[in-house]
Structure formats: C-alpha cells, structure tokens
Design brief:
The structure is a homodimer.
Chain A: E1 24-28, E2 32-33, E3 39-40, E4 43-50, E5 60-64, E6 91-92, E7 97-98, E8 103-107, H1 139-153, E9 160-164, H2 166-177, E10 185-188, H3 196-211, H4 230-244, H5 247-253, H6 260-264, H7 275-290, H8 293-305, H9 315-319, E11 326-331, H10 339-349, E12 356-361, H11 374-388
Parallel strand pairs in A: 5-8, 5-9, 6-7, 9-10, 10-11, 11-12
Antiparallel strand pairs in A: 1-4, 2-3, 4-8
Helix pairs in contact in A: 1-2, 3-4, 3-8, 4-7
Chain lengths: 389, 389
C-alpha cells in the first residue's frame, strides 16, 4: 500500500494493481467533516467525463451510480475497466444522453472502492488502509463530496442530475441540499427514505459479512490475497441479487433446473446446485472479484440511513425544497423499491407546480430493469432533457 | 447423549434436557429407505393427538407443520413446550377444528429436532449424533414417515390432511402418494413445486449457516453449549423472516424507528440498530434457542426439492391423482408463496370435478398470516370439514 497522503490513483480493490484505473481524480487537503461527526482528510474523488463542457458550463449532467457501481457509466471495457460502462447504451454520442450535446460526469461515491476515498484507501496518518477506522457515511456526505468535484470542474449548475436506486437517493439529496445548483432531476427506482423492509435486507447482508471470520472486524487488508471475507460478501450480494430481480424473471430463466453437475450425480446432496443457485454464486463471486467488502458495508449502511426528512421536519417539507422540473421513473415488477414509493415521490414533487412526470416501466426484470432496458429508461430521459434543455 | 438404539424421548435441541418433551413417540426397527437412497434405522416419530379416535377410526385429521414448527399444534405452554400450540386457536374443543368431533394428530417431521429422528438424533451405530451423516430428505420421505405413525395408530384413512407452507407440501404429497388413505385436503399458502426464487432464499440461508465456523461441517454437537452455529442460523432465519412478512407490515410496525439504545447515542454507528433490526435479531435469536441448525438445513433443502411432478411426468399428471374434495387457501400479501401459486394449484385440483374451493385471505401480514389470523383461516376450514364430514 503506497504511503502517499494524497493518492491520485484508484483505491485498493480485490485483484487490482494500484494505479491501473483510468479516470480523473481530484484530491483536496481541506478537511471533510461527514454527517456522523468524523473528519476525513486528503479526500480523493474519482470521476469520469464524456462530451465537452461548453463555454458557459451550462451543459453539464451528473449521473449518479448505484450500490456497487462506479464512475464508469459509459465507455468500453479495457485496462482498468473490466466491463463496459454500466449505462453505455444510454450515454454517448447520439445516444439517449447525447454527449454531442451534454457534458456528462459520473463520480465514484465517497466510501467506494473504485478510486474515491473509501475504507480501503490509505489513512493519511499512517498510509495503512482505513479498515475499521472508516466512518459511517450518509447519502448527504456522498453528495457534498461530489460538490467538491463540481467546484473543481467549474460548473455552477447541473442541467440535470440523474440516477437509479442509490443514484436516485443522491439525486434527491442534490436537489434538496443545493437547490440553486440543480436544474432538473431524474430519480429512478429509488425512494425518499428507506423502508423497514429495505433496511432488513441491508442488515442481513451486513451480518453475513461480519460472520465471515476473514472479515476480521474490518481490518483484513493485510491478509493474503484471497483471504478476505469473500464468502460473507458473496452471501450479502446474493440477498441483494434476489431483491434486484423478480419471481417471474427467476422462474422464466431458471425454473427448477439443476446444474449439469448436479444432474450428473448427486441430485440429493445438501449442496447440490439448482441453476438459480449457480446464478447466485456467479453474481456473488463476480462481485467479490471487483468490490471491497468494507465499501459494501459502508455504502449499504448509507442507503439504510437515507431519509430526506432527517433534520428537515417532514418528507413534505424536505421535498418541498425541490423546485425544478422532474421526471420520476418506477418499474412495475420492482420488489425492492416498489412503484408505490416512486408514485409517492412523484406526488410530492408535483406539488411544485413545475413540470413533473411519472413513468412506470413495464418489465418483468424487477429493480435491475433500469440497468437492462436501456431504451425504456433512456427514451423518456432523452425526451425530458430535450424539454428542459 | 444416551447410547440407546431406540430412543423414545425427544432428540437433542439447544437447551433441552433429554426426555423433557411431552409427546408420544413411536420407534420402529424396520429400516426406512429415503428417496436419496440412504437407509435410516430405528426411526423415531414424535407426535401429539387431541380428541378421541372413534370406534371405526373415521374421524382422524392430520395437521402438518411448517419449517420450524413441531408436533405441538395445540395445547398450552408448559414443561417441554415453551410456547402454546402454534394453531392453538384453531384446534381444540369447540374450536374451528373441533376436537369434540375430530381426532387430530400432528407429528414432528422426519429431519426435525422436536422428537422425530433428525440430524441431532443418535446414530444407531455409535449413539453419537448423526450430524453430517444425516441424509438429505424430501417431503415424500416426511409423508412416508408419517404413514408409519398412521399404521401404528390404526387409522385407515384421514378424514382430512391440513397444513400451511411446508405443511401444505405434505398435504399434496399425502393425497398424491396415498390417494386411498386421504379423504380431503386443505393446502394453505403452499405450492406444487418450489420456485426459483423460493430456492434462492433457501440457498442463501444454508450458505449463511455453512459460513459460521461453529457449524463445523455439521458436526458441532460435541461443542460446548452455546458454541454451535447460532449466528449462521440466526441470519438464515432472518432471511426467511423477511419473506414471511410483508413490506407494508414492516412499514406499519417499524417504519424507520431506531431502537432506544441507538437513539441514546451512536446514531451513525455501523451496527446501530433500527427497530426492524431488533425484531430480526429477536426472531433469529429466538429460533436459535429452540431449533437445531442441521434440522434447519435438512428441512429447508427438502422444501427446495419439493416438486410433486418429480418422477410423475408433469404437474398435471401428478395433481390429477388427487381425487378428493379440496380447499386451497392463499394470502393476498404473501411474497414467499404468492397467491398465483395457490390459484394454479386450485385450478389443477378443480379438474377432479369434486368439490374444490379457493379462498384468498385479505391480510397485510404476508405468508405468516395463516399463523396470525386464526379466524380467517379457521372459519373456512371448519365450514369445509362440516361439508366433507
């Protein structure tokens, strides 16, 4: 781990060589006090941009990523980016969010592990990873972190702030915290405050990570590669993965099929695998290879703490601060952020009297539909941007 | 652990004194081959009865319990029974399942830990708990196990077989496997075959138990009391507990409230507790005190393997073997066994041309409603029993 108080390369991530990530970073020595009261120093912000900022910096759009996303919202796979951008079909020249017209920015969230300061980053005091020393964060902390980047980029006002799931939480906090710096918003499959059921799923995942003896109370970075809390993180991810999809989608895709291996022999073994099991293992293992367990904990907790009403009286008074055109998108099969939450949100947003639209996507794929049906999400966004542009 | 090849007391359960359970047991030396091919010897069946068997043994009703249930379907709490019967409001003199008229029987399932042979029972070879030596079971094995008890009791035909959740799986298997010995059926909040999503939840719970280092590959019985896989079992139970309830019920009951402890101080701690979290911990810890982790694994796997069509061609041909009056009950807010599964089941049952009724309970409580709204479940059952009686 480099003993550099101002690292400008990506934070540690399982399997990564330091510095292999391709994005801009920006570090500041101004202390950064988070909502819990802790103070972070030398905070790094990793971000990517697409398109050109125009002369009056009036064409900038901020895209906010979800739980295990990162700044690579668009662009190809390649060194430092094992996969194409998570919204590559939506963002680019001539695409729904057209980078011939818009300057698009996406930052890795504070607490993440893809370049921005997170639990795996070196602590400025000793250059060793924060680990258990990393504070609990809130969505508001993530947004304030992004505002530093905004100032750094010389942007006064986002034309729009867009995001799904946890990205949508950031969208709301942006518009409420900095109303003068946001021109319009598009929250997707998100909520104004996490529900008890959403919190319950989060809690279970965190307990699974904590149960893994390799988590070591959060200080596992000195362990040999591969000796981190992989199984705990995989289980936590599997809980999330089921809630990201839907009963119908699982039935259509997997039914009750056994894997080839199970069909060959041990049909009645306790660990014999159904196809859906292999799918869950695949997704769990895939995340383990690209994501840090402590980041998963910290970001998940931030989502559970998400409540736009905190210290603002009520949902109504908090949402009442938003006075910009808005497009809310829900997904009819979403069991994690059910459409009723999007409708509640849109109802409060429509009180502004400003253009306010609610669209419900018809998809069998559940919450993840906004990362699958690019056209169903992208087209209304393109139309909305054209109207507010 | 007593070195008795034919134990007639309850199997080991956390915190139990051997022999403290109050129920009848019945052991047989006839080997019992399970569907996986393994053979169990000296199999014990623990059961309870209420009411009197009439002279021609024509008034017997079998009630089948769910995952972590046991034979104590009715009756008070007391020594050996820490809680009242799980359907005590439904079963008893003058109650919906009236024991002045019916002779009601409930057996602990094979693989369980409340008296019937399960992973914590002594292996006949060495008197030591089966542990990892216990075979994978199916719902059909449970039903064949119960049939031994039926023969032992001198009952030729159940007037009705009734059960919810996993109990409903047994109901279907009873009627399909032994059509001549079942007079009518009442499956509640159950399914004909476990869906991919149901399997997914099961898999996640099993992996959590396996992750617990105290599980010790299933051979933890020699460990000190309290040194079993309590945390893994608690997490597995928490996954189930969320699916047993509903989003609305959680929101109404817990919202985003923090526990008193969390409100006092550490609002932003990573392990700070929301009320829903305390509820989950409570239910996880409660199960740990009364249930054996290996039984949880084996019974959960049996549910995932549940498929009435296995080796019977198709759902239609399997269900077509059922030629008795039937009442199917679904719950409108059930996210684990959604009402569409009950409607599918009832549709296939109605093809018999015999009296076939589907009732959908209106409750916000999700899957567990059949253990909460005793009148909503009990009244249609009473009416059904009167009609078929």
């Amino acid at each position: 781990m480099p003993n550099d108080p101002l690292p400008v390369t990506g934070a540690w991530c399982p399997g990564d060589e330091p510095g292999c990530r391709r994005f801009h970073t920006f570090a500041t020595e101004h202390p950064f006090a988070v909502e819990s009261g802790a103070v972070l120093r030398d905070v790094v912000i990793a971000y990517e941009t697409w398109g050109e900022l125009n002369s009056d910096a009036s064409n900038a759009i901020l895209v906010c990523h979800a739980w295990t996303g990162d700044s690579h919202a668009a662009g190809r796979a390649g060194p430092g980016h094992p996969t194409p951008g998570w919204w590559d079909d939506c963002i680019g020249p001539g695409k729904h969010i057209d980078t011939n017209r818009w300057f698009v920015v996406c930052a890795n969230v504070l607490g993440g592990c893809q370049g921005s300061t997170g639990p795996a980053s070196p602590h400025p005091d000793d250059g060793l990873p924060y680990g258990s020393r990393f504070p609990v964060l809130t969505i508001r902390d993530m947004v304030r972190h992004q505002r530093r980047m905004m100032n750094h980029l010389g942007i006064e006002r986002w034309r729009s702030v867009i995001g799904g799931s946890m990205g949508g939480m950031q969208v709301l906090e942006w518009a409420i915290t900095y109303p003068e710096r946001v021109g319009s918003i598009v929250p997707i499959a998100s909520c104004m405050q996490s529900s008890a059921q959403q919190i319950a799923w989060g809690v279970i995942g965190r307990r699974a990570i904590r149960l893994d003896p390799r988590w070591r109370g959060g200080d596992y970075y000195g362990a040999d590669p591969g000796d981190g809390p992989a199984e705990g993180l995989a289980i936590a991810r599997q809980v999330a993965q089921v809630t990201f999809r839907s009963d119908n989608a699982f039935t259509d895709r997997f039914g009750r099929e056994l894997t080839d291996r199970a069909q060959m022999g041990d049909t009645f073994g306790l660990w014999q695998e159904f196809e859906v099991e292999r799918y869950l293992h695949y997704h769990g293992d895939k995340l383990v290879r690209r994501f840090d367990a402590n980041s998963y904990l910290v970001i998940g907790k931030a989502m559970d703490l998400h409540d736009v009403a905190r210290s603002r009286g009520s949902l109504e008074s908090a949402m009442g601060r938003i006075r910009v055109p808005n497009l809310t998108i829900g997904i009819n099969s979403d069991i994690l952020y059910p459409p009723y939450q999007q409708r509640q949100m849109s109802r409060l947003l429509s009180r502004t009297g400003l253009p306010s639209t609610y669209i419900e996507i018809d998809s069998p794929h559940g919450h993840d539909a906004f990362l699958i049906h690019f056209d169903l999400v992208g087209e209304p966004i393109a139309k909305f941007l054209a109207a507010v542009g």
